[in-house]
Amino acid sequence: MTTAPQASAGPRVWRVSDLNRRVRGLLDADTALADVWVEGEVSGPSFPPSGHCFFTLKDANSQIRAVLFREELERATVRPQHGAQLVCHGRVRAYEPQGVYQLYVESVTPVGAGDLHAQYEALRAKLGAEGLFEESRKRPLPRWPRRIGVVTSPVGAVWDDICTVLRRRYPLVEVVLSPTAVQGGVSAPAIVRALRRLYAVDGLDLVILARGGGSIEDLWGFNAEEVVRTVAASPIPIVVGVGHESDITLADFAADRRAPTPSAAAEIAVPDGTQLPNILARLSQRSATATAARFEAARRAVRGEGRALTGLRPDLAASRQRAAELLDRAHRALGSDLERRRLAAAGLRDSLRALGPLATLDRGYAVARRPDGMILRDPADVASGDELEIIVARGAVDTRVTGVRPGDMEELLA
Amino acid sequence: MSGPVPNAGDDLAGRPFDELVAELQRIVQTLEAGQVGLEDSIALYREGLRLHATCEERLRAAELAITELGRRGLAGAEVPEPAQEG
User: Fold this and answer.
1) Is A19 helix (H, G, I), strand (E, B) or coil?
2) Distance from CA of residue A207 to its chain's centroid?
3) CB A152, CB A195: distance < 8 Å
4) Is the pLDDT of residue A169 over 80?
5) Per-residue pLDDT at A193
6) How far is residue B72's CA from residue B68's CA, in Å, rounded to a whole number?
7) From CA A113, how far away is CA A217, in angstroms rounded?
8) DSSP readout, A202-260?
9) Which of A77-91, A238-252, A354-368 has the least mean pLDDT?
């Protein structure tokens, strides 16, 4: 370590490298300097064989040395040229061997709103060539998301609109808001950070990135290269809904799904839960019907056996008794107060009664059976002209099929 | 698959809604296939009722749960702050 060679009374004498290291540490410790946007005029750029670019960025009163390494230079949409006005994004660090501090540039953007469309097209072409917008990269959205991350401004209508849609359609979902500024090009680093914060959250199924409508300048953050790249790099499916129908930002292109508006993004993100009670009721009805049919089949089997034997054999009596016991057990099991209350709440009393096959038939239901004994469940199992036996509570009717209409209601959920 | 009555008797409370619906669908399909015995079909039917009741209750009680990430994320992960943010 550094120790002054003089007597303890003298001033501390530094070694140059220690001093530079100390200064570098100071700069590195300042997080504000780790992420800066600097506007200035490029002066004396050099492009040595290393592939890096060194230049000076200056304004009327000051200048700072800047370096754009080869990798960043290759990704840049503009090359620093003498006299150009640029906004440089990067960090300030000290370069110890030379005792200078400089701007390590990560990306450059030309100054001037008139260039926005040109920039947009240039960046779109560049990122498109890299394959960021490929259809093949796009992932399907989860059908039943449990946890959704939302990146948007926490103030304003957009966040409220998203919550309103989610509440109406699918309030079972859990929402994690990662708030960010969304105004203008300067919001780009904040958007990137907000996305990354979400990417670090466990158990998210989907991300929504949203902003309301505005001018091209307002929406510019969503055309920033680092935002587009961060969207494309999302570890989970991401929906982007920015502006109005006609506003298409580059972030939209990079998303797995593009939504025309923030509300539409929320609509796309979740299933329509308003249909869920009906769907559930239908499923319950189907299970009641199927169970009743199962009992009916058992009863018929026992009865058929009885006819064939024209007499009561001990084992047949036992079978009969067993079938009766099972029916009783089903009724007892389902008839407890607790169960009854649940059923009442679910409106399923009828389903319960349907468990008894005789009761079912008594209520006017019928069983249709083909000549080969098959119980008819699917219209595809018969054709016009086929014979069908319709069994009702007090007998049977022989019929002939005059038409078949398959239904498609059953598979709403499949 | 260990038997015709999946997960019978376990606690439904901690399980995600979509899983419950999927299980109800499986039960309906099993019942409709008609291949299970009488006793199993009773058990399946009961389980279906229980699932239905749980799902309905979830829907009735559902309230959108919202968490807002702080500057440091949910787990306090290091996320450097900008010098200025608008």
Assistant:
1) helix
2) 5
3) no
4) yes
5) 96
6) 11
7) 8
8) TT--EEEEEE----TTTTGGGG-HHHHHHHHT-SS-EEEEESSTT---HHHHHSSEEES
9) A354-368
**DSSP assignments along A256-314, one per residue:** SEEESSHHHHHHHHS--GGGHHHHHHHHHHHHHHHHHHHHHHHHHHHHHHHHHHTS--H
Contact assignment for A334 to B83 by CB distance below 8 Å = no
- Pair A393, A362: CB distance under 8 Å: yes
Query: What is the Cα–Cα distance from B47 to B7, expressed in whole angstroms?
Result: 9
Per-residue pLDDT tens over the stretch A223-277 = 999 999 999 999 999 999 998 877 789 999 999 999 999 999 999 999 988 888 8
C-alpha distance from B50 to closest chain A C-alpha (Å): 8
Most B-contacting residue of A283, A319, A332 (CB-CB within 10 A), to test interface: A283
The reply to whether residue B83 touches residue A290, judged by beta carbons under 8 angstroms, is: no
Higher pLDDT, A140 or A338: A140
Residue A403 near residue A384, CB atoms below 8 Å: yes
Q: Pick A167's closest partner by Cβ from B52, B53, B64.
A: B64
Residues in chain B: 86
Is the Cβ of A326 closer than 8 Å to some Cβ of chain B? yes
Q: Under a CB-based contact definition with an 8 Å cutoff, are residues A254 and A133 in contact?
A: yes
Residues within 8 A of A (CB atoms), B 21-60 only:
21, 24-25, 27-28, 31-32, 34, 36, 38-39, 41-42, 44-46, 48-50, 52-53, 55-56, 58-59
What is the distance in angstroms between the Cα of B27 and the nearest Cα belonging to chain A? 7
In single-letter form, the type of residue at position A191 comes to: I
- pLDDT at A244 (0 to 100): 80
Please tell me the total number of residues recorded for chain A in this structure.
414
Alpha-carbon separation of residue A144 from A140, B1, B17, B19 (angstroms): 12, 24, 9, 9
Which pTM does this prediction carry? 0.54
Q: Where are the beta strands (DSSP E) in B1-86?
A: 65-68
Pairing label, strands A85-95, A395-400: unpaired
Structure tokens at A53: 């670019």
Give chain B positions within 8 Å (CB) of A326: 38-39, 42
Measured between beta carbons, which residues in chain B are less than 8 angstroms from residue A190?
A: 82, 85-86
On whether any CB of chain A is under 8 Å from the CB of B12, the answer is: no
Taking alpha carbons only, the member of B70, B73, B53 closest to residue B61 is: B53
3-state secondary structure of A5: coil
Separation between Cα atoms, residue A234 and residue A333, nearest integer Å: 50
- Please identify among residues 72-101 of chain A the ones whose CB lies closer than 8 Å to any CB of chain B: none
Q: Which of A177, A291, A342 sits opposite B53 (nearest CB)?
A: A342
pLDDT in tens, A284-306: 888 888 888 888 877 787 777 66
